[in-house]
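Checklist before submission:
- one chain only
- standard amino acids only
- sequence pasted in full

Submission:
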Amino acid sequence: MCYAQPVTFDDRVRIARDFVQRCGYEVPIAIDRIDNPANEIYAGWPERLYVVDQDGTIAYKGKTGPFGYHPEELAAWLIKRFPPAVLAPSDVSAERIASEPLTMRALEYSGSHERWKLSIDPSGRATLGHERDSKSFDLGADRLLALRSAIAEQDFFAWTEASGEPRVDGRTRSLAITLGDTFKIVHVYSPPEDDSVPAAERSPDVERFDAIWDLLHGIDS
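Returned file contents:
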């Protein structure tokens, strides 16, 4: 998407709203004033990652983009600061998985670039790719049943929040599932050569993730 350079704060608000609507962006956005005071303080142009602690201090400061912009470095910092938790699968029964409204989003990154994206809405309609290059199609009852069965069999809602260690040259796969009013997202980090690792040498958590991931990758075949 290309926008004319904003000259007023209202221009920036309009562009931000259009971006959120077009991309389905769910992360809250803060908009700098037209005289750029936040950018002057944080040197955020063109992109930069910060973590501000609860007491208002800067706990993490990434390098400026594009060449120093590496979300994987921030992910590694967050994992060390907040170790992944195993959430008890209480209230997420096979019956709920089989019957309640289901939404899924899957993203794959490597080298800090998005490589693959899939979303499934509660009606069972799947969308592959970005807005311009995306294609949408109905999954049908059989494929939806297979997905729900895999989520239950692999015990998705009991997985740890993250497996592996994020790295700039590595691979990141993220799977987010909303079931009724229950939401969970899981990240799997692996080195770029991960595809060559024999299945027998992979952790059980990654094996279970791969079972669902492979099913999603084959969903449009």
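Reviewer check: The longest strand covers residues 102-110.
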